[in-house]
Write a structure and sequence with these properties.
single chain; 2 domains; Arc Repressor Mutant, subunit A; about 45% helix; 4-stranded mixed sheet; globular; about 210 residues
Length: about 210
Amino acid sequence: MPLEFGPDNSRYFSILAAIASGRSSRPEIESLLETSIGPHLEKLENDFDITQRHQPVLAKPNSRLVRYRIADAFLAFWFRFIYSNRSAIEIKNFAFVQKVIERDYPTWSGLWLEELIRQLLADTGHYNTIGSYWERGNQNEIDIVAINDLEKTVLIGEVKRNPANIRISKLKDKAQRLSQQLRQYEITYKGFSLDDIPELLKQKRQ
């Protein structure tokens, strides 16, 4: 990442801090910053290669259901926990920053666990499309949708750090509209947690 973005340095940093804090859509970021950010988002993605643009699985290319995320986990952590707490760091209140990290790290790291599971599923070579799913208003969010168009199979998954928190019945309820779009496919519902990583690593294609 460049150390300086030029005259708009603070604007870019504010956008990245907003994304790192969970404001993942353009309207959410613009509402927070109270300004238009279209050109800045485009440069962060295409020129600086810092952010990634995501749409729900099966969404049309021109769909407005778009989310942004910071591509690098280290940068995402820095903007979420260091940059956003720079005032506390400047006065050497490191205990405050530690408490914030202890409070928010489980939720933050859960999002990166989802990304890791999606990558491990991609590495198996069993699917031609892998992503996540959500509907307008951030409703019915689904962590994993992995599709094999040749075999007409779909894996719909939920990711939790703690496997005891997985609720397949709730996952099926959230997937009702998605399952209708995939009614010609055989659908499997599955929960994933940290415990599943070793088995997924074994399935990695050689």
